[in-house]
Amino acid sequence: MLRLFGHFIPIKMLALLILEMAVLGGTVYYLLSTGVHSPQLLKDLRGQLGQFSFLFAVVVGVAMVSMGLYSRSAMSDYRTLAIKVLIALALVVPANIVGTTLFHEELYESANASTYWWFKAPVVWLFVILLTRILFSFANKREFMKRRIFVLGAGTRAAAVRQMAFHGSNQSFIVAGTFDPGTSADRRESRDSYQTVADAETGTADWVDVVRRAHASEIVVALEDRRGLPVSQLLRCKIDGIQVIDYQTFCERETCRLDLDELRPSWLIFGSGFTRGIVTDLLKRSFDILVSSIFLLMTLPFTLIAAALIKLESPGPILYRQERVGLHGRPFMVLKLRSMRQDAETGGSPQWAQLRDPRVTRVGAVIRKARIDELPQLINVLRGDMSFVGPRPERPFFVDQLGKEIPFYRERHCVKPGITGWAQINYPYGASLEDSRQKLSYDLYYVKNHGLFLDFIIILSTVRVILMQQGAR
Questions:
Q1: 387 beta partners
Q2: Considering 140, 160, 187, which residue would you say is the last residue of a domain?
Q3: In whole numbers, what is the pLDDT of the chain averaged over residues?
Q4: Which of 42, 356, 371, 422 could disulfide-link 36, Cβ–Cβ 3.0 to 4.6 Å?
């Protein structure tokens, strides 16, 4: 796992991205070159061909990242994978036709690019993706592609690590063995179960030899009580080049969220993350203003059409103002296009939005699925009440309720709330206490590791959420 600007990225998926971009860019260059029949013209256009092939590969890579084709669960469902590839294809091909027509007119005419983009490009793209994904899926099942870890502990934390190994979406590691310092037995890997094997030559004090024989590259400390921590043995492993990592950091790295059940204030205090500063805040604010201004101009026609339809369908205001909790717990008024009846909360008590909520109007159902109802929040971003990326702002009533029930819930308010966020793209719409707990585990990961790089990843992934209509109610 590679940590890039605070965010954890699977190395195998990054390698797959680079491989597919290289193969696709090289194929595009070759096919466009064969379309130029004049050797002299080919010599003159060679620079443009290379430049365009490179840019095409980059655009394709960005489109595929936005559709989640390099996420941890990208290979788990081939039907969804095919749908995402086709959507990415539909986004990129028209854009490249326009790009070659406007900026490479000579290349467009000489290389017969029109025929290429409409017919050859989809076939080439699908062939490359099919080939690389089949090879990757085959290689990913081999044991040499997986890290071998050793688990120190035998309680709920150790069980959670084993659960990740057996049911993880990316299956990036295997448990080579476990050891409980409270016993003199070690547990070695079995394909179907974990068998306890007493070792006559290796006692509790010398379990390091068990780790070496298991060829483990990492030890996950998953003890329930740190008072029994075998410090000297762990130090020997560390000196021998075997990485040692605590359970919470391992969980954060492998799942990109925090385990709330095992989260301790000391880990948050002494761990990495939560970087803030004048430069960081200035870059974040500049990023928010730039992105929000662009999106506000691009989406203005959709906002005006939706506003007209709202006014025609039902009486009441077009814009809906509602109090939400912002940075450091300060309240502010969020702006949304009204998607419910005007009397949606006549009882006076706030309610969770439900699946197929009867309070939602016909126009409201459409704009909620497409997230058009949240476009006025771009004004909140420009005002400084919100950020473009951040935890979802909640109403004070729910904040008070959830703050009493869920530990660390109010810590999500140490950053500005956002229109989109890490929890929104990784977890469906939450309308219960358990949903709020799950979303908080992602929100705290964002609060701990947020930066412009992670914001960019979230914005790209939001395209997938909107197009696939994930989590809307």
A1: 418
A2: 140
A3: 81
A4: 42
Residue range 364-375, pLDDT digits in tens: 888 888 889 999
Q: Is beta strand 331-337 parallel, antiparallel or unpaired with respect to 195-198?
A: unpaired
Residue type for position 282? L
Contact indicator for 259, 441 with CB cutoff of 8 Å? yes
CB burial of residue 457 (10 Å; 0-12, 13-18, 19+): buried
Q: Retrieve residue 350's tokens.
A: 């706030």
Q: Examine residue 472 and state whether it is found in any structural domain, yes or no.
A: no
Instruction: Check: CB of residue 220 under 8 Å from CB of residue 191.
Output: no
Backbone angles phi, psi at 152, to 5 degrees: -100, 105
pLDDT, greater one: 341 or 188: 341
Give the tens place of pLDDT for each residue, 226-265: 777 888 889 888 998 899 999 999 999 999 999 998 898 9
Domain end residue (candidates: 256, 291, 317): 256
- The CA distance from 427 to 415, in Å, is 20
Summarize pLDDT for 383-413 with one digit per residue, the tens. 999 999 999 999 999 999 999 999 999 999 9
Highest mean pLDDT among 159-168, 175-184, 454-463: 454-463
Question: In the numeric block, which tokens belong to residue 463?
Answer: 């395209």
Tokens standing for residue 220: 């996950």
**Residue listed under structure tokens 């950053």:** 415
CA distance 347 to 359: 13
Domain match, 162 and 225 both: yes
How long, in residues, is the chain? 473
Structure-model confidence comparison of residues 398 and 343, the more confident one: 398
**Parent domain of 39:** 2-140
Total domains in the fold of the chain = 3
CB-CB contact of 335 with 379 (8 Å): yes
Query: Which one-letter DSSP state was computed for residue 318?
Result: S
